[in-house]
């Protein structure tokens, strides 16, 4: 007998916004299935005044980051879209680090809205029906807002409730509004660059250099620390948003080595160190595989590029990069071995001739993700370990009694893992595919 | 043969559809849009060699190897077409298990002098897909396609019998066969009319039945009467219209930047080609359907010149060859970035038109050459892995099969 279906959380509970309904929702929200969570998010997003309901989503943020449900594009999301990869949870943000803490977003957005007045309301209306994953619409509506915000933000003073709301001081406010202003000022340029690469055009390094240089210059009068934070944040955004991390980092290095201005040069060097600091605690183990693969690709590109940097390189930075490479490589190998054993080999061994389409499709999809992850990992420290693991796995799978999975299904997994030659060998040995 | 020695033809301008070949449902990323054809005869080859400079044809006939040749357009985004024997495909790329089996199956099924037709290619592709070599979804889709074709074929045959009944028995025009009547009775009425027609044409009833089956096979793709809504050719023509409309709407909302303007130009080129393909395919489709207005003459043709009837009914499919993949690229693109990527890929896959279409459609000489003129297209960056691209191609294959 199949288990009774889980009761769906009632999306209607959230709009009532009553304390009891919110309490019930909070209780349910940690255990809900993905599709239920998507409905909760849609219900909260539909509230005219989200209030306390918004806090419900905070605890679900890691799952939301994986599920990426379509969210309505709001004024706040549009304003901060250029900073998106660098909006950090408060516990991960450091005063001398990169990015901005999530806790300041509401206050600074509210300040900007106040200055913009009717224009902000008009912007709200123009965003109705657009989702936050619609890149071209974000670029279309954002260009004007980002230009305007970059002019207004650096001149804002901290509001009276700043410290109470954020736990930060007045000096932090000055830094944050300048940093956000400098980054959103380049929002359109980064968006266009991203679109170019998504349309298959090669990365325009001239533009990368111009973006980095302009963002640093815009805060050059406010000290090298802020300049370094801005350039480091921008560098991380470019690394997250554009393909070819190695090229981006080399562009930053070019800027550092060619710029006559000592402050700018120092900022670029510091930016590289900032990024290196950010790699200290790589989250390879818990990210979903495709995100982990993307992360490893960026990290490998970054570390490989750092090896080429001269004279930017200091011995200490070089040895630190190598230490990081070994550390991340170890994490990658461990994750790969574990996933291969538990989510590829074990399910295949357990499946029989009556395996369902969903079961087989799920194994194939996961094996593809694992191969993508492994391909990214090879860039860190070579292929030998992965080749050995895959060869051993293939030998086990193709031995006569390893699995009762139908041969074409098994051959497809082998094809994904190793390649078509091994799959054809299996078909030939088992002699099951008459058409060939 | 190494990859360096593969012949890259800068601008292939085929004269006939046979020379152009047929697109095969390959799943190997590099073989997207690749065509297969039978090894052309020496006389054709010698003139083609002077036209394209294909050095590989210089080998003696005995060494030419398999019958099948592979034509790969725009390899890695570059302009031009690679032409090579199918057996040498490994020199060009690493074909998937599905594609290797498809090539082998096709080569083994082709008769000595049998032309490679869309029907033969389709049946071979379905046989391979049914084995599960392109995944379970593609296998299920292939089974659905086989079932659907069998059902449509029976229905088309019944429609043809109905036409014969109404045209051969004059009174029947006033009391047409009703589709919801007892099928056995319909079949019986139709058989009587068919026998009368056979007698009038001076042929045996068995031969008439055989020709009825031939005609049902010919028209199953085009659709007749109530089957038009489900038949593959009209469905593909409808998809072309849908894709064109959606792409034009998409381009209207993507006009902000220089990049989008560039993409807009690609969209316009694809939309124009899409509309042209749709219009061109409708001409032979309607012309073939018009033949059924005079079933006696059509039957006489099917008896005396069956190849001619097959040719007439097969033209729309050949004109649309390659478009099912192009339309599905757009229709399966679910997000803006996927649509943007699809546009680049679609442009690379736009089919080359052979000169023969000018005769078919009574178009001025040189039309095909003008249609084949392309703006150079930059290679598209493909950030996804080979496995992901194969999975995407398998998804397309499943969609195309249905």
Can you tell me about this structure?
The complex is a heterodimer of chains A (436) and B (402). With 436 residues, chain A is mainly α. Chain A has helices spanning 13-16, 19-29, 34-45, 53-58, 61-67, 75-80, 105-116, 118-126, 135-152, 162-166, 170-185, 187-198, 205-217, 224-241, 245-258, 262-278, 289-308, 315-350, 357-381, 384-398, 407-417, 420-430, and strands at residues 87-88, 100-101. Helix content of chain A is 68%, strand content 1%. Chain A starts with 12 loop residues before the first helix and ends in a 6-residue tail after the last helix. Chain B has 402 residues and is mostly helical. In chain B, strand 4 and strand 5 (81-85) form a beta hairpin. In chain B, helix 9 packs antiparallel against helix 10 and helix 13 (323-331) packs across helix 17. Chains A and B meet through helix 9, helix 12, helix 19, helix 21 and helix 22 of A and helix 4, helix 5, helix 6, helix 10 and helix 14 of B.
Order of helices and strands of chain B: EHEEHEEHHHHHHHHHHHHHHH
Q: Which sequence of strands runs across the widest sheet of chain A?
A: 1-2
Q: Please report the distance between the alpha carbons of the first and last residues of chain A.
A: 42 Å
What is the total tally of β strands of chain B?
Answer: 5
Principal-axis shape of chain B equals: globular
- Count of individual beta strands of chain A: 2
State the share of residues found in helices of chain A, binned by percent: 55-70%
Strand content of chain A: under 5%
Assess the beta-strand content of chain B as a share of residues. under 5%
Going by helix content, strand content and strand pairing, the class of chain A is mainly alpha
Low-pLDDT segments of chain B: 42-66
Number of helices of chain A: 22
* Number of alpha- plus pi-helical segments of chain B: 17
Stretches of chain A where pLDDT is under 50 for at least 5 consecutive residues are 1-16
Q: What is the H-and-E element order of chain A?
A: HHHHHHEEHHHHHHHHHHHHHHHH
General form of chain A? globular
What is the mean predicted local confidence, pLDDT of chain B?
84
Main sheet characteristics of chain A: 2 strands, parallel
